[in-house]
Design goal:
mainly alpha; 0% strand
């Protein structure tokens, strides 16, 4: 989670965090919580998104390489933002309906 937070190898860190959190959540199989579902789903979504494009160590290294003749990372497209918002909407709407 700390590597995801600072943006070090963002996609790999998000995937590994998702695996560990999902494993720990599944070990407690008798307890269902929609927030755990969300906390398990978000890292896997982040692993498929360009989450290290801006304010992260990955972006810092890309800018540093760009000064030395490498490519720089671009802006974040809208689809990842929309997907995360939609997932939050689904989980919290379901929680409101159930309660």
């Amino acid at each position: 989670a700390a590597l995801v937070m600072v943006g070090f190898l963002s996609r790999l860190s998000a995937f590994v965090h998702g695996l560990f959190f999902t494993y720990l959540w599944m070990m407690e199989a008798t307890y269902w919580n929609n927030h755990y579902y969300l906390s398990s789903l978000i890292p896997f979504l982040l692993a498929t998104m360009p989450c290290g494009c801006r304010y992260s160590l990955d972006a810092w290294w890309a800018r540093r390489r760009a000064r030395n003749g490498g490519e720089t990372m671009g802006l974040i497209p809208f689809w990842p933002v929309f997907l995360l918002r939609a997932q939050m909407f689904i989980v919290y709407t379901y929680a409101a309906v159930v309660k």
